[in-house]
Amino acid sequence: MRLNLILLSILLSMPGYVLATGDSTHYLTPQDTIFLHTSVMGEKVFEHTLEKKQTLFSLAKFYGLSVEELYFYNPGLEVQSLKVGQKIQVPVPNRAIVRYRVQNFIESNFVPVYHIVQRGETMFRISRYYYEMPKEIIMQRNGMTSTDLKTGQALQIGWMSLDGIPEEYRSGGGGPISRRNNALRKVFARNTQGKKLTEDSGAAFWKKSTGEGSDFYALHRYAPVNSIIEINNPMKNRVIYAKVVGRIPDTAYGDDVKVIVSSVVAQLLGAKDRRFFVKIRYQK
Prior knowledge:
Number of domains: 2
Mean pLDDT: 85
Largest sheet: 6 strands, mixed, barrel
Strand order of the largest sheet: 6-10-7-9-8-11
Number of helices: 7
Shape: elongated
Oligomer: single chain
Helix content: 10-25%
Strand content: 25-35%
Radius of gyration: 22 Å
Order of helices and strands: HEEHHEEHHEHEEEEEHE
């Protein structure tokens, strides 16, 4: 692992090799290069280096992600601590990679995409399983006469559009709402793995005037602020995950109200009344 990191560091410091950074108004420019590596989950990711005026929200939108998905791929990421030069892990689906020079292909509209070979990876695995393209094309594109690879070697796979990644290029089905709930579910599972969870049940209250109606937010008495909680409507057999953004006011609601949810959470849980029964799991 150490050797791999050293080789990758040397590679990225070589002239002509720059990370994806963009500038103050664009997230990708013709001078950028995408360097992909496989994560522990088998996904292809690269590091975007934040520049001035780039925000987490607009970064997520540019790459076809939700902010919650960025949190999942970047544990410990905090909006308040974002700074210029910070590296953000971004997953890249195959659909976003132009692997062949098609008719009317204009290279200046794209940035090159390279795969950084990791320990144990073979040309067969990279070509067939990672990028679903013939190994002969990868070899020809990189001037190779042998399938032998070295850890840290950069293989040009193709190109990616300067316009970023369309949301529909990402898998998961169900559109952005489904993907957002799935991203929160992953954060919940990761943060609570091996830990004791508190289970509770009672009334959920749907307050349209919370100001957070368009996102997966909730108020709770005990779950830590910024943590993710699981909310289950057993009558509809629906489970939604929400981010705790504050406390339930003690004087405004009775003890039977266990959680206050945003409009979208209530709707996805199938609520028809302002008050409805739910089961909740969370970590104190």
